[in-house]
Write a structure and sequence with these properties.
By secondary structure, the protein is of the alpha+beta class. It contains 6 helices and 19 strands.
Length: about 375
């Protein structure tokens, strides 16, 4: 915590010059009107700076825990302000983040406005919100908070810094895809689904058991029941969810991607769009109740197994957010195998490069992304390519 310091503004400089000129005139001419005016200006300066200085000195601000953000979606950062003064309320408090001298500083990935708190009663606690818009995925670092006030006259602005380091992740942008993109992974598909070793409401045979009160007549095993003193019913197995592995192929370095003009900026944008497409596929799998896994080729091992649920989706999004595209690429990684009887979708940046390990994979490239987006019309051509 630092002592509040003055931030020079045009009004404060103008008032200081006017006070100086009036003071010189009052001393030189001994005019009562100028003396009174000089005294009023001095009192105005002292009152304004004293009130603002006391407000900032006895106010504490804490940034609340930040979970994560998502590119293209508003990110709300909440602050808790506590006024420790017993007899004076705090007014017109602005809370902003100071610039961080790091490549992961928040100013490189977020855009927004500071939080504003109208007033905080004596010995009271209140909260303020600042809304930021994430523009890029990746880790974000916050360091110091800056609280500012110019109350009561708006002439002198005082600022105080509070050190509170914190980190969070900005997840990739999730785009709305058409329903047909994962239509081949329905429970009646060829691969990616099956039957579990548990009883349920499926159609496959699981076993026999004594008939309950509400057992349907068509589920009764009449031949087995004829040899026993009680009715025996057929129990069906529980169908498992479809399973999907999504592979992000980043084996080719950014400078070697086949893009227009070999532009490195355009190539990097292709990679970011590929990451966004993978995140969109995983989010869609979550919505359609599909077990999803993630594998990244070319970068340090990212291999997340098949799971389902909101926490699993957040983990997958966090893995994508942490990808460092400036890291060295491995052009000959270990290729994925059968993936435990799961469907396979491979996302590549510039063009399709089939994987030798799976001949039944589906391939999507960044150039197909506009055709995969949901335009609410439902009319578009098939864009998946089977290897």
């Amino acid at each position: 915590m630092r002592i509040p310091r003055n931030v020079f503004t045009g009004w404060s400089v103008l008032l200081a010059l006017a006070t100086l000129l009036v003071g010189i005139g009052a001393t030189a001419f001994s005019n009562n009107l100028l003396v009174w005016l000089f005294g009023i200006l001095i009192a105005l300066i002292v009152l304004s700076m004293s009130f603002a200085w006391l407000t900032l000195l006895f106010v504490s601000v804490k940034r609340l825990e930040i979970s994560h953000g998502e590119v293209g979606q508003p990110m709300v950062i909440r602050y808790e302000l506590r006024n420790r003064l017993r007899w004076l309320a705090a007014f017109n408090i602005w809370i902003d983040e100071s610039v961080v001298g790091s490549k992961y500083g928040w100013q490189h990935r977020l855009e927004g406005a500071p939080a504003w708190i109208l007033n905080a009663r004596p010995e009271g606690t209140c909260q303020g919100e600042a809304v930021y818009w994430p523009r890029r995925r990746g880790p974000v670092v916050f360091d110091k908070l800056q609280i500012t006030t110019s109350f009561p006259f708006g002439i002198f602005r005082l600022r105080r810094s509070i050190c509170q380091p914190q980190r969070c992740l900005i997840h990739p942008e999730i785009k709305k895809l058409q329903n047909r993109v994962l239509s081949t992974l329905s429970p009646v598909g060829l691969i990616g689904s099956g039957f579990s070793q548990r009883a349920g409401s499926g159609e496959d045979y699981y076993g026999l058991r004594e008939v309950g009160v509400f057992q349907p007549m068509r589920q009764i095993a009449w031949k087995v029941s004829a040899r026993r003193d009680y009715l025996v019913g057929i129990e069906r197995s529980l169908p498992t969810r479809p399973r999907l592995h999504v592979v992000l192929d980043l084996r080719i370095p950014t400078t070697e991607l086949e893009v227009k003009g070999r532009d490195p900026i355009l190539a990097r944008q292709y990679e970011e769009d590929a990451i966004s497409l993978v995140a969109s596929l995983l989010a869609m799998a979550q919505e359609k109740n599909i077990d999803a896994g993630l594998r990244v080729l070319g970068l340090p091992a990212v291999d997340v197994g098949l799971r389902h649920g909101s926490w699993h989706r957040l983990r997958l999004a966090a893995e994508l957010a942490m990808l460092d595209l400036d890291a060295p690429r491995d052009k000959n990684p270990r290729m994925p195998g059968e993936f435990e009887r799961a469907s396979l979708i491979v996302v590549q940046c510039d063009r399709v490069r089939p994987l030798s390990a799976r001949q039944d994979a589906w391939y999507y490239t960044v150039s197909q992304l506009p055709l995969l987006l949901d335009d609410n019309n439902g009319q578009s051509d098939e864009t998946g390519e089977a290897a």
